[in-house]
């Protein structure tokens, strides 16, 4: 397993070992003892999302029951985005993005204090992500995917959004995490 810090060092790109032969492939999507190199959080919930090309989900986070996430693509390809919303962080308001796919098998780890979103760039995509706490609909918040202050460089121009994502808050209006970040 190869672990690489992104431009925001707390967000990690993980490349698990993939064993391929004429039958197909095998890789571990998670193994607690090996992933301790990345995080000491205990994951509590797994989510699965299946979407078609052009769907954009996010930018989501929870102010109650905040979640660290480990994102893996089982089928297709996504452009995965993490936005630092930790007030006091030297990278507050900055974002990083990675292409994750069933071909490259890369994973993205986002610690607590990041908004998360992705868009589907393949015909279809199936995404699983581990979460460090349970989903709490009352604590969920969404930041506009195209907020000009963030200026995320999405690879699509007119995404398919859920009604909730279509009326998201601007970055300036959104509540942030007040954390002591070293």
Automatic annotation (TrEMBL):
The record marks 135 as: Participates in a stacking interaction with the thymidine ring of dTDP-4-oxo-6-deoxyglucose. The keyword Isomerase applies. The active site is at 60 (proton acceptor), 129 (proton donor). The keyword Isomerase applies. The gene is rmlC. One of its GO terms (cellular component) is cytosol. Signal peptide: none annotated. It comes from the Bacteria. Belongs to the dTDP-4-dehydrorhamnose 3,5-epimerase family. Homodimer. Keywords: Isomerase. Gene3D superfamilies: Jelly Rolls. Pathway: Carbohydrate biosynthesis; dTDP-L-rhamnose biosynthesis. GO terms for biological process: dTDP-rhamnose biosynthetic process; polysaccharide biosynthetic process. This is dTDP-4-dehydrorhamnose 3,5-epimerase.
């Amino acid at each position: 397993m190869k672990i690489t810090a992104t431009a925001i060092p707390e967000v990690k790109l993980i490349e698990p070992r993939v064993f391929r032969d004429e039958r197909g492939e095998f890789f571990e999507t998670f193994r607690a003892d090996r992933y301790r190199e990345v995080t000491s959080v205990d994951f509590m919930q797994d989510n699965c999302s299946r979407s078609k090309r052009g769907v954009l989900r996010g930018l989501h986070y929870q102010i109650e029951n905040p979640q660290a996430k480990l994102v893996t693509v089982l089928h297709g390809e996504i452009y995965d985005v993490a936005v630092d919303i930790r007030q006091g962080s030297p990278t507050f308001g900055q974002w990083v993005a990675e292409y994750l796919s069933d071909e490259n098998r890369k994973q993205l780890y986002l610690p607590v204090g990041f908004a998360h979103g992705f868009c589907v760039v393949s015909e279809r995509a199936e995404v699983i992500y581990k979460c460090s706490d349970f989903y709490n609909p009352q604590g969920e918040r969404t930041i506009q995917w195209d907020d000009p202050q963030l200026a995320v460089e999405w690879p699509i121009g007119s995404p398919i959004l859920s009604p909730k994502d279509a009326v998201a808050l601007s970055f300036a209006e959104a509540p942030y995490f007040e954390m002591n970040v070293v």
